[in-house]
Amino acid sequence: MLRIYDTRARQVEEIAAGRALRMYTCGPTVYRHAHVGNLRTYVLSDLIRRVLERRRVRVLACQNITDVGHLTDSGADKVLEQAQAEQRSVRELARFYEDAFKDDTAALNIRPPEHMPRATETIDVMIELIAKLIEQGHAYVVPDGSVFFDVQTFPTYGDISGNRLDALKPAHRIDTVDPRKRFHADWALWKPFAGELTWDSPWGRGFPGWHVECSAMSLRFLGSRFEVHVGGIDLRFPHHEDERAQSDSAVGHEVVRHWVHGEHLLFDGRKMAKSTGNVVLLSDVVADGLDPLAVRMAFLEHRYRQQLNLTWDTLRAADRTVRRWRARVAEWSESPSAPMASEYAQRVESAFDDDLDTPSALRILRELERDPSVAPGAKFETFLHIDQVLGLDLSTEIGKARVLPPGAGELLEARARARTAGDWGESDRLRDLLAEMGVRVADTPEGQTWS
Ligand code: AMP
Ligand code: ZN
Fold first, then answer.
1. pLDDT of residue 189
2. How many CB atoms lie within 10 A of CB 12?
3. What is the largest CA-CA distance in the chain?
4. Which one of 242, 262, 282 terminates a domain?
5. What is the separation of C-alpha 407 from the centre of its chain, rounded to a whole number of angstroms?
6. Within a domain: residue 343?
7. How far is the CA of 222 from the centre of ligand 1 (A)?
């Protein structure tokens, strides 16, 4: 069974899944295109799902769509700000980038989560949760209609990231602590505001804070206990600490069993981010003539817990590997069928189970690719089996008509006869003739193949 690094436990732990497992992933804020750094995090969730499904565990996944409530440091809503900049309505903007996100994740073979709730359509669930937290004494209302979470009522705050309350300094960017807060680390659950994208609430008109969204949605769609929570490493603090404080306070026990975080993607040595100015979109990769799944391959070449420094060279190398494996699989598919190379398959699967050690899995597959003692039919079966986890569409070239140049068919037959007769000189002569026609011949234990 899958063992994975649990950020809160600070160690690799076996995922205790019965026949089903519930997984929550912090979804995208849909005010701009997701860059390939963001997409790395969603490939991580997809990998967890595929590895578990291979072990016959049914995975129920929920991933929110943040279309309101994601605040910038200055307190402005990113979605609202961008809509104003693009002179579109908020709804138009959010739906456009949501569709773009779904296209990108589909191109990366990321299976869609069972639930993809939009923040704007679940405001009632958030209001209900905020009201409960107020009633329990975990949150308080201030005269302007804001609601804050009272972090001092949650003693284990900081368990995930190690950022203990007593060590937290007031935000250095703000000179004075917000006088409305009881404690500087309290955060807003509800913000008073009038205008587009606001809702009525018991505390007046406004909109919810971002952190409360994930608590409300995970509790609603996955229930009060679930096994895995995934996000990028930057979300450990404060987002996941805040989420844990809200959810656990509301239900009175630990909600999430394992917190899993994916490391950052760097591009040319720096964290990929809009603010850094080194954003690469999936559409940029495709415009460069690469297969979108080259990006997935490049991710798999690194373990999710390592920073990955992507470059155009690594992307091109990944693209070549994906294309070569597809061609090989097509070639092997023409050989007599043979059972899977089970020893190799087991080694690859153990690597997956070992905290998603995909680099080792790929190394073992390269070894299998080269191993002359394994029949092509067995390689074919093994690669297709493992591709259920890799998700690289390795079968797409199978059966694609390959047309021989005129006269080459006869030369191939003559060469096969020469080899049966042990006439190696003639065989080599015919191989060179074929090469001049652009037909590359390879000899395998099952006879010659060409490409
Ligand atoms: P956002 O849409 O900004 O909320 O981010 C969506 C997801 O992408 C979050 O899980 C982030 O932690 C993650 N993320 C953001 N930047 C990177 C990066 N450079 N590498 C990997 N993950 C990232
Ligand atoms: Zn979240």
1. 96
2. 12
3. 96
4. 262
5. 49
6. yes
7. 22
Q: Is residue 258 lining ligand 1, measured as CB closer than 6 Å?
A: no
- Which tokens sit at 374? 């394994």
CATH number of the domain at 217, please: 3.40.50.620
Is ligand 1 within 6 A of the CB of residue 271?
yes
Last residue of a domain, one of 215, 235, 262: 262
Count of domains observed in the chain = 2
Beta bridge partners, 448, equal 443
Distance CA 23, CA 179 (A): 38
Distance CA 43, CA 292 (A): 13
CATH number, residue 389: 1.20.120
Do 257 and 327 fall within a single domain? no
Q: Where are the alpha helices (DSSP H) in 371-407?
A: 376-390
Let me know: does 293 contact 108? Beta carbons within 8 Å.
Answer: yes
Q: Is 45's C-beta closer than 6 angstroms to any atom of ligand 1?
A: no
User: Which ranges constitute the DSSP H helices of 302-375?
Assistant: 312-332, 342-353, 358-370
* Same domain membership, residue 340 and residue 247: no
Among 32, 35, 38, 263, which residue has the most ligand 1 atoms within 8 Å of its CB, making it the best to mutate? 38
Domain of 327 in residue numbering reads as 320-403
For the chain, give the number of residues: 451
User: Would you call 271 helix, strand, or coil by DSSP?
Assistant: strand
| C-beta atoms surrounding 349 within 10 Å | 18
Q: Are residues 255 and 359 in the same domain?
A: no
User: Would the pLDDT of 174 be above 60?
Assistant: no
Q: The whole model's pTM is what?
A: 0.88
Give the Cα separation of 215 and 27 in Å (integer): 13
Q: Using one digit for the tens of pLDDT, what is the confidence trace for 265-313?
A: 999 889 999 888 899 999 999 999 999 999 999 999 999 999 999 999 9
Residues ≥6 apart with Cβ < 8 Å to 100: 33, 34
For residue 399, with 0-12 CB atoms within 10 Å meaning exposed, 13-18 middle and 19 or more buried, which class applies?
exposed
List CB contacts of 342: < 8 A, sequence separation 6 or more: none
Beta strand pairing call for 58-63 and 139-141: unpaired
Which amino acid is located at 217 in the chain? M
Atom of ligand 1 nearest to the CA of 272: 19
Instruction: Give a yes or no: residue 432 inside a domain.
Output: no
Q: Are 149 and 139 in contact (CB under 8 A)?
A: yes
pLDDT on residue 405:
80
Instruction: Collapse the DSSP code of 212 into the 3-class scheme (helix H, G, I; strand E, B; otherwise coil) and give the result.
Output: helix
